[in-house]
Amino acid sequence: MIRDVETVRATGLAGLVRDSLAKHLGVRPDDVVIPDNAEKYAEPVAGTSGGAALRKIFELMWGLNRAGLADESLGSTRYARRSLRDALRAVLDRTVSAMGGDAFEYLELGPEPAKTTHIIDHLVRHGADVRGYTAVDINPYSRPAVVEHVREVLPDRPVRFRQELFADVTAARCHRPGVRNVVTMLGFEEGNDHPAANAAMLDRILAPGDLLLSEMQLLPRTSWLPIFEFYSSAPMREFSETVLARHYGPAESEYGIYLLPVALGGGHRETMVAVTAESVRGPARPGSGPIVVTNYCLKYGYDAYVRQREEYGSMAVLAQESTADGSIVFQLSLKK
Ligand SMILES: C[S@@+](CC[C@H](N)C(=O)[O-])C[C@H]1O[C@@H](n2cnc3c(N)ncnc32)[C@H](O)[C@@H]1O
Q1: pTM
Q2: Domains of the chain
Q3: Phi, psi of 283 (to 5 degrees)
């Protein structure tokens, strides 16, 4: 279990991603620009046009989840059927049985209304005793939609939204006496952070007996195509353009998707990272401007994702349910 803050500081994922992309493209690391991940979603400085971009980022994410849940074939293959919704349902059934009828508080790191209401509705209909809901998100544009939609599925319970960094949430501040938390971290969120940093953050938030429900896109054993298909989708391209405009300003650019090895250091295994980047057209000639990384997300294999949770976080994985193509997984784990 890694708790040492210095270790976490020394393992910033952005720098490692920048070095890997620079090496792959044969450019200097200084030519690669990576906006800080939390900054990507944070409230803009007064007077800038960043608010519209943040709203757009939230809406793109919401749209992606609505489409994903509505698509009954997403995740199935020519040979086997098991969609994202099927995998999610299976892990939610495991969540209900793991709670054994105990009441719990639902704490969501990075909320989005479509998936969240789908999950809470399923949990409640299958007998879960959800006492209240708290969302934590740095993006203020999530608040109205999240609160309004969650209230519809939890009408008699407190629904709260905390606009703050995950790093500022502590177990003491987010637990009610004698009530366990079910914490969610969905939408490939933890892929944006070094596993050591992520484990240290979860260690501050989770108390023994809490459950963590997380979702990641994985490297399927037989084809990496689902990763390229996801990042070449229209919403992800638009997300990339929005991040570029917000952090660099208006620019002509070319979109790129890269799947690269990244050495995580400090005894961690080498893993793969999916990177989207905009190659900005410089004034002199195409490609002479910087390469602006608009998203990066670690991609583990199925077993590596289990090991990653158990080795770095005093956690036990109770279930891991994947789509038929092995590209999306929901993991349920218990804080020991
Ligand atoms: C990748 S999105 C995932 C959203 C959603 N859970 C889903 O399934 O699509 C990440 C969300 O977490 C928020 N977020 C990212 N980093 C954060 C941080 N360090 N502190 C607080 N919120 C953060 C973003 O604003 C965004 O809403």
Answers
A1: 0.93
A2: 65-220+301-335 (3.40.50.150)
A3: -65, -35
